[in-house]
Amino acid sequence: MRLPTSVTGISTPRSLPATRAHGFTLWEILVVVVIVTISVSAILFSTSITRGSDDLKILGKDLSKTIRLLYQEAIFESKNYAISINHQGFSVLEYDGQDWAESGQSFFRKVKLNESQKSQLLIEELVVKLVDQSKPVPHILILSSGEMTPFEWQILDSDANTSITIFGYILGNILATYSVPQS
Question: How many Cβ atoms from other residues are within 10 Å of residue 69's Cβ?
Fold first, then answer.
């Protein structure tokens, strides 16, 4: 096959048939947008399912740290603290020599649980009935002598189907365990 020759004597290939312009069609762009939307919604849905258990884990870590801090604060400052637990959450109490009152320190604020979270407290293997009262009742004592009420505090999250259990021992040791649903 012979190539056509130009005026200058150089062989040039025949021109190819006209092709479409470079770029994407509206259908191609639409397909990509749909795929990206489905992927993003799947990722968001899967992370929202585990968000409840992550929140509960963070709550467990924060509670453990708060109790450890209260224990150290009680010893170093020669103060007696207590934790009052009710259905909505818990608050930190301080003994003023005559009565228990909510702690004035901003770090030891009241903590409210989500509506799906429920507390259960065991002291000396007995379930403590948690009652909402206007005046907080001390449940877990953290004394300046270095002693603490031995307890088992379980918080269940019915939405995420998870729970945390915080164990407190008489000499101030704290252990937190997490149960995650099997999938």
Answer: 15
Query: Is residue 61 within 8 Å of residue 168, measured between CB atoms?
Result: no
Q: What percent of the chain has pLDDT over 70?
A: 79
- The separation between CA 41 and the C-alpha centre of its own chain, rounded to angstroms, equals 21
Pairing of strands 162-168, 174-179: antiparallel
Q: Cα separation of 12 and 6, whole Å?
A: 7
pLDDT in tens, 28-56: 888 888 888 888 887 776 665 555 567 78
Q: What is the mean pLDDT of residues 75-89?
A: 89
Indicate the CATH number for domain 28-179: 3.55.40.10
What's the gap between Cα 72 and its chain centre? 25
- The count of C-alpha atoms lying within 13 angstroms of the C-alpha of 103, restricted to the half-sphere facing its C-beta, is 22
* Domain residue ranges of the chain, discontinuous segments joined by +: 28-179
Closest CA to 60 of 182, 183, 174: 174
Both ends of the chain: CA-CA distance in Å?
A: 68
Burial class of 107 by CB neighbour count within 10 A (0 to 12, 13 to 18, 19+):
exposed
pLDDT, the chain, mean: 81
